[in-house]
Amino acid sequence: MSTFQDLGLNNDLLQAITDLGFTKPSEVQEKAIPILLGSEGDLVALAQTGTGKTAAFGFPMLEKIDVNSKTTQGLILSPTRELCLQITNEMKLYGKYCKGLNVVAVYGGSSISEQARDVKRGAQIIVATPGRMKDMISRRMVDISKIQYSVLDEADEMLNMGFKEDITNILSHTPDDKSTWLFSATMPREVSAIAKNFMHDPQEITVGNKNESTSNVSHEYYLVNARDRYQSLKRLADANPDIFSVIFCRTKRDTQKVAEKLIEDGYNAGALHGDLSQNQRDLVMNAFRKNQIQMLVATDVAARGIDVDDVTHVINYQLPDEIETYTHRSGRTGRAGKTGVSMVIVSKSEVRKIKSIERIIKRKFEKKDIPDGMEICEVQLMSLANKINNTEINHEIDKYLSSINELFEDTSKDELIKKFFSVEFTRFYDYYKKAKNLNVSADGGRDDSERVSNSKSTRYFINVGSKDGYDWMTLKDFLKDQLQLGQDDVFKVEVKDSFSFFNTENELKEKVIDFFTDFKNNGRFVNVEVSENRGGGGKRRGDRNRGSGRRRDDRKGGGKRRSEGASKPRRSNSNSGGSNAFKPRRSRR
Ligand code: ADP
Ligand code: MG
Fold this sequence. Notes:
Layout: H1 4-7, H2 11-20, H3 27-38, E1 43-46, H4 53-64, E2 74-77, H5 81-94, E3 103-106, H6 112-120, E4 125-128, H7 130-138, E5 149-152, H8 155-160, H9 164-171, E6 179-184, H10 189-198, E7 203-206, E8 217-223, H11 229-238, E9 245-248, H12 252-264, E10 269-272, H13 278-289, E11 295-298, H14 300-303, E12 313-316, H15 325-330, E13 340-346, H16 351-361, E14 365-368, H17 373-390, H18 401-407, H19 413-432, E15 457-462, H20 472-483, E16 491-495, E17 500-505, H21 509-516, E18 520-521, E19 524-525, E20 528-531
Parallel strand pairs: 1-6, 1-7, 2-4, 2-5, 3-4, 5-6, 8-13, 8-14, 9-11, 9-12, 10-11, 12-13
Antiparallel strand pairs: 15-17, 15-20, 16-17, 18-19
The structure holds adenosine-5'-diphosphate (ADP) and magnesium ion (MG).
């Protein structure tokens, strides 16, 4: 394993790398940087999203250009405005010690004359979307006749989006002897064609297997009736109180609709798609980056390449038309070494697609059940309990303590706890007490034949979760190892942020509880308790309530205007907030 020094970068760049906190190069960087620094040839690099491609081409370009000249020497083409801005920002960070460096972003939906002015001031590097670039060339607002380095980033996506003509046109204005560096997650025929037609004998590098998804993402699917899609989405969100997610829909219209409904139902949601203005998209993205939006509902195109590190869940509200796209979607989570979950909500007519996706990503999906109402109530309750337990006391409260104490003089501790929790819990309980089972079995009808519903199993609560580095697979392994159990003895493992649930057969209950009495892991007591809920599909057949009642009578900030409510804190002044109301504002950074 080499270091950035070994790769041959100069001190200005190394200093910026240190500031960024990159300790060692990623695989694509390790492979691409020496090639790009060492030769003037062309390169085709295949690497999934989240592997650090921007730095793989960014650092060599910065090393090679002449900052003392005002001539445009590097051109980076990328499919979307968001990506274009993201790359521009990264390049500025990478080059922050390169005195005189000027990187300019050129993209649609923003003033073309302002961008032209910025370019005129002497941009050594232009980062552009193809449409706007072509436009500026035809209006003679840019001169790319002297560029030495061109990058086609997310080449497969640019071609998917129909930019082939524009790219051809743009490249025809560049010198023949420039170097072209093509980066792509996949290598469909159109990309090979570009490589063949526009590049000279390129070196090729591949990181991981083509199209394969990262191993720290687990894949799950949920089989429901198509009409229950939205309810299912809400339950998945409610069952994961700390969710920070991208939700993919197939069309702009669905994207907008789902986001609006979520906002109306009290979630911190926002929409991202091509029908929004640039300004609206920026607002939504900023809110998402700041974690003010927990559920970003997006189209594939708009979300492509978006680089937000802490995404915990990707939810495929609908599967993409082209199953290859699934790789890009699931690549929004499990970034920067973190674990993530990619969930797919499928109806019976789509379920065969899961098999095709498994072949492409070379990973197995786990079929899971949409949690039932009581399971969600329990998760939310335990999540709240954990948060309270971890809360630092604010001593400003001390001065009110005597009057509060007076009020509760005759209330026992038990009673007080119950009252306190009921403030939040009752809202959930009222909403979910009559919720039906949304799961459909593969052979038809609702799925109530789960092993968990025959009351032979015990469900447990354990106070370790993804914060402790577990996902359902590693937690299952951990439990199996510790308890010396067989492959199928631990099931229904659900990992949340700071706690988890799992099931065993009833016979094992004593063993499990005994084992974890006084058990410490990394110096911390691991606490296991029997959960009231047995987990998995409910047994509420015949229950007519669709669970679609509104849980929020205060609709301030509701999505009446596009993405407007999105950036607002969710429960500014309401105590009747939506399902995620347990959550305090989070600060992940
Ligand atoms: P890609 O273009 O392959 O999808 P990005 O270039 O957007 O990936 O990088 C993904 C994330 O990883 C970014 O947040 C980036 O800052 C970070 N990153 C890139 N290289 C490194 C590194 N060597 N060490 C740590 N983090 C890195
Ligand atoms: Mg990228």
